[in-house]
Design brief:
The complex is a heterodimer of chains A (109) and B (118). Chain A is mainly β. Chain A has no helices and 11 strands. In chain A, the strands form 2 sheets. In chain A, strands 2, 4, 5, 9, 10 and 11 form a 6-stranded mixed β-sheet that branches. Chain B is built from no helices and 11 strands. Chain B is mainly beta and 118 residues long. Helix content of chain B is 0%, strand content 47%. The chains are: A mainly beta (109), B mainly beta (118).
C-alpha cells in the first residue's frame, strides 16, 4: 500500500530552526509537495521537489532524497505566524496526490 | 481573482437529508477535486474531474455524487447524509500536466465547508 509518515506534533522556539521530516512509500513518484495549513483554514502550497537536493524559498527550504524515500521541510528564523500544520504529499505514478496526516508545529515565545 | 469559491462554510444536517456543496474556480483549471479532512488523517480524495463532462472516483466516493457540466463548477452532492460524513470538505483545483494526466500537484483550495450530520 501507499504510505506517508510524518510526526504528529512538534514544538519549537521563536527565532529557532525546525526540521519536519517526511518518509514515503508510493507507487511511483512524480514529485513531493509541502503545504501549510493554519488552524481553521485551507492548505496552501509551500514547495515542490522532484529532483534530489535542496530547494530554498526564503526562510523555508525543502529537501528530497528519492533513493531513501525521504524529505524534510526546514523552517528558519521561526515566527509565531509559522504555527500551523505542515502537510507532506507525494504525486504517484497515476498523478494522484497521496497525503500524510500532517505535522502540527507549535511555536513558543 | 476569486480563485476557488466554496459554499456554504458551515452546514448542519440531519441523518438522511441531502445537500449540495458548491465549488467554482475562475483560473481555467482542468483538474478539480473534492477532499474530506478528518482529525488525525490525511486529506482523502472523494471525487475528481479532469475536464467538463469527465468525473472519476477517488479513495472514499461512497455516499457522494459529482458532476462537471462546465470548466468552472464542480458541485458535490451528499445523497443521504450520515453521521460518518461529518467532516471538513475542501474543493481544490489545479492545472493538468502537459500531455495528459490528472493534477500537477500544486492545488488551489477553497476555504472549506464544515459539515455536521446529527
Amino acid at each position: 500500500g501507499q504510505n506517508i509518515d510524518q510526526p504528529t506534533e512538534m514544538t519549537a522556539t521563536e527565532g529557532a530552526i525546525v526540521q519536519i521530516n517526511c518518509t514515503y512509500q508510493t507507487s511511483g513518484f512524480n514529485g513531493l509537495f509541502w503545504y501549510q495549513q493554519h488552524a481553521g483554514e485551507a492548505p496552501t502550497f509551500l514547495s515542490y521537489n522532484v529532483l534530489d537536493g535542496l530547494e530554498e524559498k526564503g526562510r523555508f527550504s525543502s529537501f528530497l532524497s528519492r533513493s531513501k524515500g525521504y524529505s524534510y521541510l526546514l523552517l528558519k528564523e521561526l515566527q509565531m505566524k509559522d504555527s500551523a500544520s505542515y502537510l507532506c504529499a507525494v504525486l504517484d505514478s497515476n498523478y494522484q496526490l497521496i497525503w500524510g496526516a500532517g505535522t502540527k508545529l507549535i511555536i513558543k515565545p | 481573482n476569486a480563485g476557488v469559491t466554496q459554499t456554504p462554510k458551515f452546514q448542519v444536517l440531519k441523518t438522511g437529508q441531502s445537500m449540495t456543496l458548491q465549488c467554482a474556480q475562475d483560473m481555467n483549471h482542468e483538474y478539480m477535486s473534492w477532499y474530506r479532512q478528518d482529525p488525525g488523517m490525511g486529506l482523502r480524495l472523494i471525487h475528481y474531474s479532469v475536464g467538463a463532462g469527465i468525473t472519476d472516483q477517488g479513495e472514499v466516493p461512497n455516499g457522494y455524487n459529482v458532476s462537471r457540466s462546465t470548466t468552472e463548477d464542480f458541485p458535490l452532492r451528499l445523497l443521504s447524509a450520515a453521521p460518518s460524513q461529518t467532516s471538513v470538505y475542501f474543493c481544490a483545483s489545479s492545472y493538468s500536466p502537459q500531455g495528459g494526466g490528472r493534477t500537477t500537484g500544486e492545488l488551489f483550495f477553497g476555504e472549506g465547508s464544515r459539515l455536521t450530520v446529527l
